[in-house]
Amino acid sequence: MLSIASSELIQIFRNRLVLITSFIIPVAVSALFVRQHETFAAIGSLGYIAAIVMFTVAAFGLYATAVTTLASRRQNLFLKRLRSTAAADSTILAGLLLPPTAIAVVQVAAILTALAMVAGEPDNVPLLVVAVLATLAMMIGLGLATAGLTNSPEHAQVTTLPVTLGVIAVASWVGISGTEDLTLLKRLLPGGSATELTVNAWNGGIAVTDSLLLLAPTLGWVVVAVVLATRLFRWEPRR
Amino acid sequence: MSTTPVIEVERLNLSYGDFHAVQNLSFQVRPGELYALLGTNGAGKTSTLETIEGHRTPTSGTVRVFGHGPDDRRTVRPRMGVMLQESGFSPDLTVRESVDLIGRLTRRTDDVDRVLDLVGLSDRAGRKVAQLSGGEKRRLDFATAAYGTPELLFLDEPTTGLDIQSRDALWATVDRLREDGATIVLTTHYLEEAQQRADRIGLMHQGTLHREGTVSELTRTLPAVIRFSLPASVPALPLQAVVDRDGKALVETFTMQKDLHLLLGWAQDHAVELRDLEAGPTRLDDVFRAIGSAPSHAN
């Protein structure tokens, strides 16, 4: 797995387009939120900023990169080549997804640390970590499923839009308006309960046990995404 | 050497929707053998090969490689090298990185420099795959297949796009692997390669094994051919021949040696010059051309 991961990392760094669109832009957007935190905290809260930067990285960084990478490696038959070796399917996927995941983790950690330094520390760091990890897991699952519907890296620019724009919209909606109204709907939408969990972890004031219940819908989406992925994912281009 | 087959295919069927690509296909490949799986376009060769390699799941029937299912990658793959029909390398990795990565994942051990030298890519080691020519990509593909000297080697149209030197070098490497006892499964459109090298040939047509046997078993059923050109006025030929308006003659024979002797004696006696004389055994090409017309002799 590590040999696949390290070759994947080399490929990411050699491909400037992927590097810029997937890793530099999310960081730039997040930096803007952190810099203007007073403005955005007035609209929502500091927890809302934490949620929106987390989803910016998870959607435009991790998710979009995962879909583009998998579609591209399938299109040029690299996946088939890897499957001609002794490596198991799960090893191949883990190896391919490890670099973008690791990069996303580092990005989120760095940006949230920066936010904590300029705006004050979050109320519950472990809970925040759990929220981030659950969100990244959900986005990886959705990425695998979307990759099954994506024929080429160019096609990925279209197929990733519903999820990337969708989760950003949900995170903004839930982060700004809270979950007093339309509670069930907001929590069941992908990213809704993860946003609420992140907001609670940062702002505090909610019992941890109540917050942990919010993990259920996110983990539910992980399961849905994995089930979809096992049905949709393809290793070879359609002929 | 063990006589247990390296590959066993039994009543293999493969369907894509309504299309029955492979029907009730059975054959075996023995240890140390070079088995050529040949066929017309769309005959089902690649489907069959990819099932044996573990890329496709049979609709029904069984496939065994070294006595295991092809999907048992951990057991089977370290013992086999695969040269795919289309390369499948990442354009952003260098030649050395590609061989190192794929070689390592086969779980065989080898020296990357040795393998690059074997296929004549040492001077391209630091280049990105995107910058390689088609022939160089084929050689890279062969390098990953030959990495670690596997017991079984799949060569899917290995010499397509290779110049004659690279082709000879590839076959020299294959011959060396065979001396060590390797088993080879080959598909190719260059029939003379199969004719020269295959121990046995499986000839597929429309998803079934149309004929199977050694080259001489396959060619024996068709006549050999003698061709020559005749000057304007000559005495009657001593054997049956088709002569066209330009004097080009064609003799089809199952007794080449006798007929050739007869013809040469006749030419000598009548002082006739047989221009452009050629006589050769039946070629696989002719066996192929006969596929559409002749009834199947399979099984």
Automatic annotation (TrEMBL), chain A:
Signal peptide interval = none
Q: Which residues cross the membrane?
A: 12-34, 46-71, 92-119, 125-146, 158-176, 212-233
Q: Which domain of life is it from?
A: Bacteria
Q: Does the keyword Membrane apply?
A: yes
Keywords (alphabetical) are:
Membrane, Transmembrane, Transmembrane helix
Annotated protein name in UniProt:
Transport permease protein
* UniProt organism field: Plantactinospora mayteni
Organism taxonomic ancestry: Bacteria, Bacillati, Actinomycetota, Actinomycetes, Micromonosporales
TrEMBL record, chain B:
Where is this chain's protein located in or outside the cell? Cell membrane
What is the predominant subcellular site recorded for this chain? membrane
Q: Which UniProt keywords apply?
A: Antibiotic resistance, ATP-binding, Nucleotide-binding, Transport
Against PROSITE patterns, the record matches this protein to: ABC_TRANSPORTER_1, ABC_TRANSPORTER_2
Domain (ABC transporter) spans: 7-231
- Know the name of this protein? Multidrug ABC transporter ATP-binding protein
Q: Which organism is it from?
A: Plantactinospora mayteni
How does this protein lie in the membrane? Answer: Peripheral membrane protein
The domain of life for this entry's organism is Bacteria
Q: Source taxonomy lineage?
A: Bacteria, Bacillati, Actinomycetota, Actinomycetes, Micromonosporales
